User: What shape does this take?
Amino acid sequence: MARISVHKLREWKAEGRRFAMLTAYDYATARLVEQAGIPVILVGDSLGSVILGYESTIPVTMDDVLYHTRAVVRATEKAIVVADMPFMSYQANADEAVRNAGRLLQEGGATAVKLEGGTNVTALVRRMVDSGIPVMGHLGLTPQSVNQLGGHRVQGRTPAAAAKLLNDARALEEAGAFAVVLETIPEQLARMVTERISIPTIGIGAGPSCDAQVQVFHDLLGIFDDRRPFRHAKAYANVGTIIRDAVRAYANEVGSGAFPTAEHAFEMDDASLAELEAGGYHQPAGVL
Ligand code: KIV
Assistant: This one.
């Protein structure tokens, strides 16, 4: 089965067809996400916090993203798999950036890459697109610059900052990006961007006017009870509680002897058992 083409997303925008993007980082999750009909799966560098337990996305490496991208690609047939370019995989050197983006497609099997930034990265985006690498942009609250931004704050609230973001979005479109994530910006600004560019805007904390939305899988499923998701996240289930209850029930049943039962065990036939009990069988030397 062929994967959805990145060009389809622009057609969907033109038709007014909204879609959901969701993160996934492993085989089992990616299978479930694709089975649920999600057309675009992001192997986000958010894996740094929800999978690897880091405070931010800064420590995530190319090897981390490659490892998780391969698992997601193995699990899926149809979805566009977008691999996030981690911090310092594209900021220092343009040649290295194009090579790293290429690795995510060649070694990871991703359909496309995502990178953060506006006019500061558009020359790079153009080079990648010209090399055959589909690129998704990311504007607004760009987590790799969280230290520069002074924390997880709403971006684009002043006229100057909003005008810059509009300009960045247009520049990304002109450079050949096929879509752009808008993270944590005022909904009025997201609406203006969405109306002024022909590529889909994918919002997270950017209000309802975007062409698509993206969420982090662990926030959507309510996996953590001690990691307060940002206000823009919505938990559609409380899977953390379900998992904890199931694991507790298992441990209790092992403790009480209720698990395993005959249903989960295997038997030797009577004749073999009788022969064994009659004796005469000796372990070969060296075998416990
Ligand atoms: O890393 C990630 O999951 C992301 C999304 C939040 C857009 O970049």
In short: The chain has a mean pLDDT of 95.
